[in-house]
């Protein structure tokens, strides 16, 4: 049975990043917004690690540095993602792979379509959703909760997947207002489904604007009544991209990936202790990655196609 959604009507939902992190209970099922190298709620995830969050389960589609970082920081107990990696740029996610191979994190791999159907079931108040995919794959052994049935109308064999209600959705959007209205520009990935299916929605945004401004903006709008708290966090998705504000920070991601490949202890001393636990706030993190110079460099993609290509080509590590 899915639970009724709380309607969030507080007139001012602005909170600090640490306050948002404190609202994520240990052991929660967490839906992390964004995807791959774009618009992931990295500032909030770093705050979660500084808080010492443990025992989390992550659910999602295709992710990268966000889930890899949570593995390295000891926050995860279970992963139900369809992909975690650094795409064709750097390949496998070292911390994620290490955590799953050691058994520190339980692998409960899923696939994008299954996730979407499970979220849709929760949104519609249904206990399950029938699908045609997954049958004949190894996913059945990872998910004994799935059930086979014979359709009473056609005789076709179908798979039933249970509704998925994450405890918390963590979303980073370009804009929002103090009431919690969010504007997501570019692909929303699964964020709108996450927000509608989850019991609690916590959001960071690049910029808090007026409600009137929100109403005139292009993009997907998530209404205020889904959102419990919001925090303005400029460059809150770094090192993933958040267009139109900034592109993906490839040099920083290369630094991260090299540190992760060097092993768990090395990653702790060269990355976690520097960029997560060694930066006591988001402002301290921004200063550590180069401050205004880094922001301006990553914003230069907007100067045209050549500028955007050069941002990646010229700064590719040797």
Features:
318 residues; alpha/beta; 9-stranded mixed sheet; 3-stranded mixed sheet; 14 helices
Please write out the topology:
Layout: H1 17-22, E1 29-32, H2 42-51, E2 56-59, E3 62-63, H3 65-72, E4 76-80, E5 83-86, H4 87-90, E6 91-92, H5 94-102, E7 106-107, H6 112-123, E8 128-131, H7 139-142, E9 147-150, E10 157-162, E11 168-176, E12 182-184, H8 191-197, E13 201-208, H9 211-215, E14 220-222, E15 229-232, H10 250-261, H11 264-276, H12 282-288, H13 291-299, H14 305-313
Parallel strand pairs: 1-2, 1-11, 2-4, 3-5, 4-7, 11-13, 13-15
Antiparallel strand pairs: 5-6, 8-10, 9-10, 11-12, 12-14
Protein name: CoA-transferase
Pfam families: CoA_trans
InterPro entries: CoA_trans_fam_I, NagB/RpiA_transferase-like
Description:
The protein is an alpha/beta fold and 318 residues long. Helices cover 36% and strands 20% of the residues. It has helices at residues 17-22, 42-51, 65-72, 87-90, 94-102, 112-123, 139-142, 191-197, 211-215, 250-261, 264-276, 282-288, 291-299, 305-313; strands spanning 29-32, 56-59, 62-63, 76-80, 83-86, 91-92, 106-107, 128-131, 147-150, 157-162, 168-176, 182-184, 201-208, 220-222, 229-232. Strands 1, 2, 4, 7, 11, 12, 13, 14 and 15 form a 9-stranded mixed sheet that branches. It has a 3-stranded mixed sheet with strand order 3-5-6. It has a 3-stranded antiparallel sheet with strand order 8-10-9, covered by helices on one side. Helix 3 crosses helix 5 and helix 6 runs parallel beside helix 8. InterPro entries: CoA_trans_fam_I (IPR004165), NagB/RpiA_transferase-like (IPR037171). This is CoA-transferase. Pfam families: CoA_trans.
